[in-house]
Amino acid sequence: MGQIKSFIALSLDGFIASVDGELDWIPQSVRAIPKSLFENASCLLVGANTYNYLFEHLDGQVYKTKPIYVVSHSDYNILPNSNISFLTEKPLDAIRRLKQHHEILVIGSAKLLTELIQLELLDEITICHIPVFVGKGIGFIGETFGSYWQLVKCQSNKGAIFATYNYKKKQDD
After folding, report:
1. What does the pLDDT look like over 136-164, one tens digit per residue?
2. Closest C-alpha among 126, 92, 129, 86 to residue 106
3. Residue 5: which of 133, 153, 146 has the closest Cα?
4. Of 44, 45, 100, 149, whose CB is crowded by the most CB atoms within 10 A?
């Protein structure tokens, strides 16, 4: 069975993007990290907003080498004959099937991360804390009460703190 791992940048006040969805407050060195993580994964899993951002800002060039799965209410693939699949019908069932055979990387996608955590499908999350206050924006995560995580790695680089956590079934006493 594969694993689902996530990487997400987070402002000190808990946002993953500004109100207009921009990431210009994230240093370029941090924005490059998902590309290197993608090399170790067999596919990419994103929500619709992250998919839109990738193709509006990066032309999707970085992620054309492996399958991309987009969790969305509708299939609006603008690149026919590509490696992009939209998971519109029972997407969480599809993700469970993908996890059986793939190492999956999730980037961005706060709503998707919330659902993966609630259903105990996310195995590892790396949070990069960027030393900036965004003020207003897209929040990091929804309600995930009762989800326990173990810190397995922590390091700093140019003021940013990278903390990697593995999912735990229950809290240690």
Report:
1. 999 888 777 788 899 999 999 889 999 99
2. 126
3. 153
4. 45
Q: What are phi and psi of 41, to 5 degrees?
A: -100, 160
Distance in angstroms (rounded) separating the CA atoms of residues 25 and 47: 21
Tokens at residue 19, please?
A: 């109100």
Nearest alpha-carbon partner for 116 in 137, 138, 139, 91:
91
Dihedrals phi, psi of 94, to nearest 5 degrees: -65, -40
Set out the domains of the chain in order of their start, with CATH numbers: 4-155 (3.40.430.10)
Q: What is the DSSP string of 120-158?
A: T---EEEEEEES---SSEEES----TT-EEEEEEEEEET
pTM of the complete model beyond 0.85: yes
Q: List, for residues 27-43, the tens digit of each pLDDT value.
A: 988 888 877 788 889 99
Structure tokens at 65: 């080498």
The two tokens of residue 169 are 């079934």
- Residue 47 near residue 72, CB atoms below 8 Å: yes
